[in-house]
Amino acid sequence: MPDPTNPTACLLIIGNEVLSGRTQDANIKFLATRLGEIGIPLREVRVIPDVAETIIATVNEVRARFDHVFTTGGIGPTHDDITSECVAAAFGVPWERHPEAWERMARYYAETRGGIAEFNPARQRMATMPRGAALIDNEISIAPGFTLGNVHVMAGVPRIMRSMFDSLAPRLAGGPPIVSVAVHAPGLPEGRIAEGLAAIQARYAALDLGSYPYYRSNGNGVAIVAKGSDPAAATAAIAEVTALMTRLGGTPIQGEPPT
Length: 259
What we know:
This protein is of the alpha/beta class. The chain folds into two domains: 163 residues, Molybdenum Cofactor Biosythetic Enzyme, Chain A (3-Layer(aba) Sandwich); 76 residues, Alpha-Beta Plaits, CATH 3.30.70. 37% of the residues lie in helices and 25% in strands. The protein contains nine helices and twelve strands. A six-stranded mixed sheet has the order 2-1-3-8-7-6, sandwiched between helices. Helix 3 crosses helix 4 and helix 8 packs antiparallel against helix 9.
């Protein structure tokens, strides 16, 4: 069950176009970074198709396990944009005209897009939401996302999703921010530090110590990144990693390796 004192998040990427390889997701890094900054670490990401049964079952599974569930994709005007109605089904509430979203979008199309006729049935789908949904504003293309319970439904287009998240973020209850401290050692193979790194990780069980080998035209090496909610512990762990690298003949450099 979710623990509000240590909130966690799951991201559902919804869309056949991602699973087919036609579209490459560009939202994971942004959401993981921004959520970490407000103390809601992203613990799981799933990519699922535009299949109603799959969306409904997955939403119900993950909303029971995580404090926050974020979805991207499937809230546009076309026939395969079914995320909104599936979230309604998952919560067991009607999928109906949202008064505020409907009025906002009707006014927008009447004033800026050549008349109310432009607010056609396809676009009206974007103002149809689960009963009880709270809107997530969208400053890019007017059609809003929404929150229902602990599920936050946003667009898949990165620029629009980021606008929605900026609107949503102040409403999210987070914990301590997640900090990241790194060190890297050019020329030091990952395999040489594995045993010592495992011992350090055991001493800092509350941190995630990640090992990331890198390969560059001017030489290879390994980077170690400590992540967690305790800045002092992350700094101390990286100090021990730095000492380990030095003992093994490396020349550690604080921070991530240059790209």
